[in-house]
Amino acid sequence: MIEVTTNTTFSNLEAYFEHIPENTFVSYTFFNALENSFSIGKDTGWLPFPLIAREEGKAIGFLPTFIKEHSYGEYVFDWVWAEAFQKHGLSYFPKIVCSIPFTPISGPRILAKDLEVKRMLIKALEKIMHQHKISSCHFLFTNSEDQKILNESGWMHRQGVQFRWTNKNYKTYDDFLNTLSQPKRKKIKQERKKLDNLNLNVIRKTGSNILEEDLQFFYQCYCNTYAIHKSTPYLTYDFFYEIYKKISNKILLIIAYDSDGPVGSALNIFDNNNLYGRYWGAIKYIPYLHFELCYYQGQEYCIENNLSIFEGGAQGEHKLARGFEPFETYSSHYIVNEEFRDAISKFLEEEGDRMSVYTNELEERSPYKNE
Hints:
Layout: E1 2-6, H1 28-36, E2 46-48, E3 51-55, E4 58-63, E5 65-68, H2 79-87, E6 95-98, E7 111-112, H3 115-131, E8 136-140, H4 144-152, E9 156-166, H5 173-177, H6 182-196, E10 201-206, H7 212-228, H8 237-247, E11 251-258, E12 261-270, E13 274-282, H9 289-305, E14 309-311, E15 325-335, H10 338-364
Parallel strand pairs: 6-8, 13-14
Antiparallel strand pairs: 1-3, 2-5, 3-4, 4-7, 5-6, 8-15, 9-14, 9-15, 10-11, 11-12, 12-13
Helix pairs in contact: 1-8, 7-8
Protein name: GNAT family N-acetyltransferase
Pfam family, one: FemAB_like
Organism: Methylophilales bacterium HTCC2181
């Protein structure tokens, strides 16, 4: 007999992560680092609430779900929905979210091998929402397989767009530049030359070459990015320190130096095929430094190490001019209140039409030759 229960922590669920292919972001190490560092949990608005499935005491699947009291750190925006609930005297929060906190990267969210177990977890989640009068649940940045299951289960579909760079078997960075249209190629060369004229030294480090002092400097930069926008960092230093200790072999740390010392840094995660641009910052404003550390250095690293895809993170049409191309992202939503469900369904249908037009326009602005 299959039993579905809930938990209030990820710290004892290591066996449940074994049901998915290797994925750094959907891994026990990553979630445990978030929890141990207090980046999620009490006072963060991200309360762990995983649904877990067992058969005869054996782990067979789970959902990385959270009780949320706000919509920060999700990158799929539903503030308008929350405002509509409030105007009608209804509570939108708390809600349930199934996602990787602060990480807009597509991947598996229904973590089970068996299709029936996946469907059972979804049904159990719906039952919890109705029983406990929770307004809604949101699966964010799902892969196509999970999106299909959620669509078949009657959940509402939402489409988004991000940008990624594809390594088309380039041997050198010039090989890549030569595939771009002349204006785009010229723009990148000009930006990089201006930085060269400043005599900046950019170093890429992975694994044991990353020193603790490097990580400390990176975190100073990361915090400064938030300070500039009068905001507070989502992630604590302890989070970065824990992944540095556990998975430094999957971290690409890029640091730029001028004559006075380090001035900026970007931290990326990579696997056998993909590079994921995640976090960056600088302690000095230097024009084009962001593009160098967050895009051009990552592209070069992919070429040198035969990585196929470089995902640049959420939003940013400026990525288009630097060789990144648009691709669709997906999320799924269940609204308990039927009237609001109908209204939001209509909203998503109209938004989807606009998003399709927008994506087509982006594709027409391809930076590549003869496209």
